[in-house]
Amino acid sequence: MPITQKSKYALRATLELAMRYGHGPVSIGEIAKAQAIPARFLEAILAQLKRARLVESRRGNEGGYILSRPPARISVGDVLRVVQGPLADPDTLGRGHPADPQPAQSVFAPIWETAVGAASAVYDAANFQVLVERYRTVLGSHAPDYSI
Hints:
The chain is mainly α. The chain is built from 6 helices and 2 strands. It has a single domain, classed as Winged helix-like DNA-binding domain superfamily/Winged helix DNA-binding domain (Arc Repressor Mutant, subunit A), CATH 1.10.10.10. It has a two-stranded antiparallel sheet with strand order 1-2. Helix 1 packs across helix 2, helix 1 crosses helix 3 and helix 1 crosses helix 6. The termini are far apart.
């Protein structure tokens, strides 16, 4: 399953909210700037994540978005399923492509099911708390070194 640009934006927005978890709401503008996401796409993505109850919004001057639960309880798979739908094309699981003859699809179906299961396991095992820790490490290693 290819990861769409919209999904990449959703993952980066969720990462930014996870980085700021516990520090109050984050505005769309702050998320967009921090993660280089076009604000107009971000609005739609956050609305989708809100409908799925992965994020909550707060109104007012100090308003913005927050994660609806701790980062350790939100996985990459959760976000991908909200933005892209099921992690597998239902036409390739068990039934094969409609143009495929029945014997061929029954031969390939177990391979597709195994691949989808493996990808889902990887996405579901990657929670945002672990990603926040990795991201902080990456950000720390990119700090300018002014020593002589």
